């Protein structure tokens, strides 16, 4: 696991939001430039608009912490993980992740010494014939076989101790405790008659016991919580974890007293902060707070889940390419680009993959934008294109990509300001706060990280900016799950001592 740290005070602090998208087109016609200027204005977000969003975000977080508010955008789900790793914990832990058709089993040896660790990991494929049937235990039984095989590969000793394991599954799970959760929906092509409503942890325990595996599932693990804890083991001041890729989510530490969904007796007995899974992907879905454009409304209306996950649809890898495609089609219909070209590829929904934006925005090596030509003409079969066409397409990618980063930066600022206001943002020992972020889009999109940090710095007070750092964390999810297992074991041990 690697982490790239950016100190928010490492660059000159600017109280201005990132500037409007400069046009700077050399080859575009006057009409093309005027049309693009109107699109820039449509997607522009002023500092005042961002501050309105920040206010709304804080309100939604507070409402989500109240029990059963049907009008709240964000679910604010308790993770049941309390306390903070120190980086000095030691032990050997297992993690299991089911992601699509892949199974990942990981052994993490925590060495202490301020976050040193060693990782063994193996990947397995789920056979097609195990994706559906009458009994989901057939799938879990196969997963148990994978765990058994993994233990043999890493020389796991079965007679000396029981491994603590955390599991992360690619199904929608309603979690009612650290090691309790029932499946509420099967996804990614899985279909079992008895899948919905089953207790995942019980199933794993039953299969592990049947195969004689000395493994105990001690926790369910959410990917955002895993990101936070994976970074926190090496950077104990970490208070936020963010996943930003095909989808997006954020987890942060909250005071247990404010989490009204928890039983009052639990809140009385537990004084340490708990990690909350915000489910911020759904922010703005009640048609409040976000600067939604006509292009966003069109995408949402034509999606397979209209009126939900609006923030996700404006910012993530699943949807950014489709926003770009819709803008390009609009420009074609306005006779601004691709005159007379074959547009079959462009007319297909979701044909403009978000990864194309990475290539096009980074295309600065040639005057005729050769990499952009390859995407348009060879990948999308739009032929021929002019240099002006490519220049316009590049600017459209920049407009959509920059707005996405600004919205993400504004959302992070919202959580940071919420935590500062409640005195839970800064590590008391160091008076600092680290923010952990992972995800292909965040890591691979040119300038995305810089744009997020620029927006974040513009929205938080200058006097505290130097207390914050942002870490881009790679390969964190499975490692973080093992650290969730460590935290569960630690919490159980501390509970026994109190008893």
TrEMBL record:
Its EC number is 2.7.1.-. GO terms for cellular component: cytosol; mitochondrion. It holds the Pfam family Hexokinase_2. Belongs to the hexokinase family. This is Phosphotransferase. It comes from Mortierella isabellina. Signal peptide: none annotated. Gene3D superfamilies: 3.30.420.40, 3.40.367.20. The lineage of its organism: Eukaryota, Fungi, Fungi incertae sedis, Mucoromycota, Mucoromycotina. Residues 240-487 form the Hexokinase C-terminal domain. Residues 36-233 form the Hexokinase N-terminal domain. GO terms for molecular function: ATP binding; D-glucose binding; fructokinase activity; glucokinase activity. One of its GO terms (biological process) is intracellular glucose homeostasis. Keywords: ATP-binding, Glycolysis, Kinase, Nucleotide-binding, Transferase. Coiled coil: none annotated.
């Amino acid at each position: 696991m690697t982490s790239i740290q950016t100190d928010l005070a490492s660059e000159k602090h600017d109280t201005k939001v990132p500037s409007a998208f400069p046009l700077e087109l050399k080859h575009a016609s006057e009409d093309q430039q005027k049309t693009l200027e109107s699109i820039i204005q449509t997607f522009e977000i002023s500092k005042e608009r961002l501050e309105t969003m920040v206010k709304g975000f804080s309100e939604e977080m507070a409402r989500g912490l109240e029990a059963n508010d049907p009008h709240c955008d964000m679910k604010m789900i308790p993770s049941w993980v309390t306390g903070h790793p120190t980086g000095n914990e030691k032990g050997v832990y297992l993690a299991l992740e089911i992601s699509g058709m892949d199974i990942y089993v990981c052994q993490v040896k925590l060495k202490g010494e301020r976050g040193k660790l060693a990782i063994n990991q193996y990947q397995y494929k789920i056979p097609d014939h195990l994706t559906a049937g009458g009994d989901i235990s057939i799938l879990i039984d196969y997963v148990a076989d994978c765990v058994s095989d993994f233990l043999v590969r890493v020389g796991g000793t079965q007679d000396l101790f029981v491994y603590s394991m955390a599991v992360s599954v690619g199904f929608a799970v309603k979690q009612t405790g650290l090691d309790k959760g029932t499946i509420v929906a099967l996804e990614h092509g899985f279909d079992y008659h008895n899948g919905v409503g089953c207790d995942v942890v019980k199933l794993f325990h039953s299969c592990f016991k049947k195969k004689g595996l000395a493994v105990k599932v001690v926790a369910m693990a959410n990917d955002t919580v895993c990101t936070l804890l994976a970074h926190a083991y090496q950077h104990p001041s970490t208070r936020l974890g963010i996943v930003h890729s095909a989808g997006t989510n954020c987890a942060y530490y909250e005071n247990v007293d404010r989490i009204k969904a928890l039983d009052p007796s639990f809140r009385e007995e537990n004084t340490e902060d708990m990690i909350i899974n915000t489910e911020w992907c759904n922010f703005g879905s009640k048609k409040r707070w976000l600067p939604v454009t006509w292009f966003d409304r069109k995408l949402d209306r034509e999606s397979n889940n209209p009126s939900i996950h609006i923030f996700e649809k404006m910012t993530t890898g699943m949807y950014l390419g489709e926003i770009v495609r819709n803008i390009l089609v609009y420009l074609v219909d306005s006779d601004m680009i691709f005159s007379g070209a074959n547009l079959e590829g462009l007319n297909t929904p979701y044909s403009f993959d978000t990864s194309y934006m990475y290539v096009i925005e980074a295309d600065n090596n040639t005057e005729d934008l050769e990499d952009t030509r390859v995407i348009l003409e060879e990948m999308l079969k739009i032929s021929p294109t002019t240099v002006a066409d490519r220049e316009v397409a590049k600017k459209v990618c920049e407009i959509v990509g920059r707005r996405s980063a600004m919205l993400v930066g504004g959302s992070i600022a919202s959580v940071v300001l919420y935590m500062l206001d409640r005195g839970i943002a800064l590590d008391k020992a160091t008076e600092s706060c680290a923010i952990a972020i992972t995800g292909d889009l965040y890591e691979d999109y040119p300038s995305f990280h810089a744009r997020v940090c620029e927006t974040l710095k513009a929205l938080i007070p200058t006097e505290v900016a130097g207390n914050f750092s942002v870490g881009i964390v790679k390969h964190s999810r499975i490692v973080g799950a093992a650290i969730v297992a460590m935290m569960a074991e630690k919490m159980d041990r501390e509970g026994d001592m109190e008893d």
